[in-house]
Amino acid sequence: MLRGGLSRIKESLNRINPSERNAAQYILDHPEKMIEMTVSELAEASGSSPSAIIRLCKNLGLKGYQDLKLRVAGDLQNLGTNGDEYKEISPKSDIRTIIHSVSNNNVYSINETLNILDADKIEQAVDWLAKAGRIDFYGAGASQLIAQDAQHKFMRINKPCTAYSDAHLQLTSAVTLTEKDVAVAFSYSGETTQVIECIKAAKERGAKTIGITRYGTNELGRLVDVHIETLSSEADIRSAATSSRIVQLNVVDILYIAVASRSYEESLRYLNRSRKALQNSFRIK
After folding, report:
1. DSSP codes, 217-276
2. Which residue from 14, 165, 244, 274 puts its CA 20 to 30 A from 21's CA?
3. What is the pLDDT of residue 93?
4. Is 82 inside any structural domain?
5. What is the signed CA dihedral for 180, 185, 191, 196, rounded to 10 degrees?
């Protein structure tokens, strides 16, 4: 069943023009009514226009109004199975509340991302990664930790890859890529300068490029060949990336498992070989 209509609208609400926003807000406030309405009826009820609603659907990456209706209907049917709504931690929250809220927020963000993940884009990314001569993973700050996680996983199935923490090394690596290689950039905002410069350099060398960012339009998403979008309802007041990091790690796991499954027996041999080496060298006997 199609889902993700309400998630797309929530994430895009502050980035669309006023006429589209009127319709979007009405849909969020009255989703049950909207799925029974025509474009003209929604335009009249929301103080918008039919053309603005069609533009809204296009800006949400949907095929049209019927696609939006089907996704909102799917969201309503799925209501209550996606985890509670995102919950902010308040001052002096007790430990039980924090445990529940943090865990719920991570589950909620993964499920929201699941609703908008494009399987065709994932398939294309997996195909490129499986055939890559070398894979570069780029990221800054918390996103660099995701890049390192990706390197750790792909290296264990014998995929030559890098995830340098130094920005200079990332760029140096990018300019040595070829058309046989793949560059993967992590930036939830999609606006991290050093990551964008690496992708520009990789594209100039003919490498295929993949960007994993928040949902919606951003500079990194515009630059890459395949833009994989994620959703996280984090507020601005936070000490570091939390659920946004979790959803991107989940995407890494999806890509890794999919690539490994392309050559299952070979991947298993390399995994067992690295596991045995690590156990023999670094675990107390």
Report:
1. --HHHHHSSEEEEE-----S--SS--HHHHHHHHHHHHHHHHHHHHTHHHHHHHHHHHHH
2. 244
3. 81
4. no
5. -30
Distance CA 6, CA 12 (A): 10
In the predicted structure, residue 237 carries a pLDDT above the cut 50: no
Question: Residues 196, 183: contact at Cβ < 8 Å?
Answer: no
* 163 and 43, same domain (yes or no): no
For residue 245, the enclosing domain spans 119-280
159 found inside a domain? yes
The answer to whether residues 67 and 124 belong to one domain is no
The torsion defined by the Cα of 187, 191, 192 and 196, in degrees rounded to 10, comes to 90
Amino acid at 98: I
Residue 82 to residue 93: CA distance in whole angstroms: 23
Residues 123 and 72 in one domain: no
Residues 6+ apart with CB under 8 A from 26: 34, 42, 45, 46, 48
What are the contacts of 167-170 at 24+ separation with CB within 8 A?
Answer: 167/140, 167/194, 170/136, 170/138, 170/194, 170/195, 170/198
Tokens found for residue 177: 């890529």
Give me the mean pLDDT over the 28-52 stretch.
Answer: 95
Q: What is the pTM of this model?
A: 0.84
- Structure confidence at residue 236 (pLDDT): 47
User: What pLDDT, on a 0 to 100 scale, did the predictor assign at position 170?
Assistant: 98
* Burial bucket for residue 285 (CB in 10 Å: 0-12, 13-18, 19+): exposed
Which amino acid is residue 40, in one-letter code? S
Show which of 54, 77, 100 is a domain's final residue: 77
